[in-house]
Task: structure prediction
Amino acid sequence: MATEQELSDFLKGVEKRAFKRSVYHVRDEEAALDIVQDSMLKLAQHYGDKPAQELPMLFHRILSNCTLDWFRRQKTRNALFTNMEDLAHGDDTDDERFDWMQTYASDEQQEASQSAEALTQRAQLLQSIENEIQALPARQREAFLLRYWEDMDVAETAAAMGCSEGSVKTHCFRAIQSLSKALKAKGIEL
Result:
């Protein structure tokens, strides 16, 4: 059984990634925040007594279901296939937009010692990668983010997505191939 402290620590550790994942899906920061908060409340209310090791899989499944519920309520089934550039070029200024790639990929001590040119190149590289991730089909993007960003194994990802392990592997393979091809076309080799 998870203690209150374990539950609290888990929720603190997952909130930013869950928020960004929701923003990728719904393309609306306020709606994404509501979805994440609802998911956290449901986890605490209904599954707070579960063992701590089960919390990540339960939370990601709840988050997926809350996201699907949001789409049903909005009756915007086609929103999954709209252009992700609406997120990048919304009414917000670049200063106000949450940029997860720069947030997680930067280290303040390293930034201080790097030149402005190196920082600019790195920011452009990260923006290119983020744009290509946003361009992936929804299921490929979800599988890719759960596997490689959330660091879930295939079984956990399949449970969170509600599909078979083979489907997860297929989605991840196709996402990696698409990303590789798109980045290579831009001259980016990772």
